[in-house]
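Q: I'm teaching a short session on how sequence maps to structure, and I want students to see two examples side by side rather than one. Could you give me a first protein with its sequence written out and its structure tokens following it? Keep the formatting plain so it prints cleanly on a handout.
A: Of course. Example one:
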Amino acid sequence: MRLDALLPAVLLDRYPPTWPTTTTMANLSLYTVTALLILDTDGHRVLAKYFAPPHLAAPGTGIAAELGVGPGGPGMGGLATLKEQRAFEKSVWEKTRRGGGEIHPLPPHLILSKSSTDLSFHVVGPLSTSNELMLQQALVAFHDAVSLLLRGQIEKRNVLEGLDLVLLAADETVDDGIILETDAAAIAARVTRPRPDTTDIVINEQTLLNAYSTLKDRVAQRIGQL
């Protein structure tokens, strides 16, 4: 039973409860990220990951509904098909390309953006229940991790060439709509390609001449032994 149900209405009016009520507790959810996007200067998709809680039978049901994720949140529907996602990404681009800061309300969604050369990074959450600070930390961590992985060259060409690393960085930042990590260095460390044990061999004209000279000497030695 709720504690506020045990108190007289007069006391509740004069001394509102300071503990979480049913309404405020409904907004406490780990599922805070609806989508993670990278768009180019024309609004075309470079990377897009849309999230939903696991074991979701239908949009707006299951865990998402029970935890009160809110309209526009992960698993709440409206972005299930490719057509809906493309239209949404176009709306995001139209909304954010005009400037006006890094936080953009696009009901029922809240969009946080960060631009870099010819790309823009976006994190999307539900407008009614989002924690802007958490979304901002996730966005900055993902952007900075990509910067570390691509050695500071965050351009469309480089992102496409290293798309495997960028996708892994996205997976290490957000999973099923839950923010996992906000430390860019930790994210980059988990997805960096392992260095080979062998040293790199530089092949040039001098290397070929040395190999030819060595081979020539060994052949001459073998002939002299006959």
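Q: Perfect. Now a second example for contrast.
A: Example two:
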Amino acid sequence: MKRSSENEPTHTKILLTSLSAMVAETSTFPIDITKTRLQLHSQQSSSSSRPATAFRVAADIVRRESVLGLYQGLSPAIIRHLFYTPIRIVGYEHLRNAVAEEGTSLSLSTKALVGGLSGIIAQLVASPADLVKVRMQADGRLVSQGIQPRYSGPVDALNKIIHAEGVQGLWKGVFPNVQRAFLVNMGELACYDHAKRFVIENHIADDNIYAHTLASIMSGLAATTLSCPADVVKTRMMNQATSEDSKLMYRNSYDCLVKTVKAEGLRALWKGFLPTWARLGPWQFVFWVSYEKFRQLAGLSSF
């Protein structure tokens, strides 16, 4: 598969990745908020006698908050992707082309390392928007219980977090956040790149929507399996707010990991696996198909 993207305009790739990410995020956001609420379920509703399922959580959101409740926190999610996705996707492509010798392909392990490094850089930049998104998604539970939400919007959330927790509060949970970003991008970018190349070189499909679909399914499964434990820890770390006596439920990500396993068992680390994969699969399908098509229309080479 020919690599001829070194001299292609970077700003065009940034624009196309942002546009593709906005389409994918809007299409799959209801699954994301269901996943977040499911991961927070035991933490916030331990007295509930009924086991939580993705379908039950989604139905409860619609019943209590209307269909619009499924899009609680969409605006900071889109803002996050305007930073996160271009950095990781365009960064991965540049690093891959810089490391690979002309006419050769990188090994899967090298692609995984390049993908992980791209994810770390992107997540460090986008972490504040990710924090606001998680806080606003969790706020929906307060509204459904008749409690005044903490934030009226993303700007209000940003201001209140800085006022209550300082500027450094915007990077609360950054360590598990970066861990997850490394694992997700290690699985997603490396697997998509490698699987797509395998499908095309073995004549299973040409470089078209069929190859992109097969590669996105494989990368979604790999990314979910690797990242789900870090995702659970990240969500719980980022959702905790400083109480009046300045005490936190978790001291750090390791403390959160240990307490989660002790209280709920090892399986709790993969809580939300199905909705996570159900989101990553469609998200990657929409993103990669859109991005590859946009690249083609813009006269760029295939990813």
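Q: What should students look for in example two?
A: Point them to this: The mean pLDDT is 83. Also worth mentioning: Residues 22 and 251 are 34 Å apart (CA to CA).
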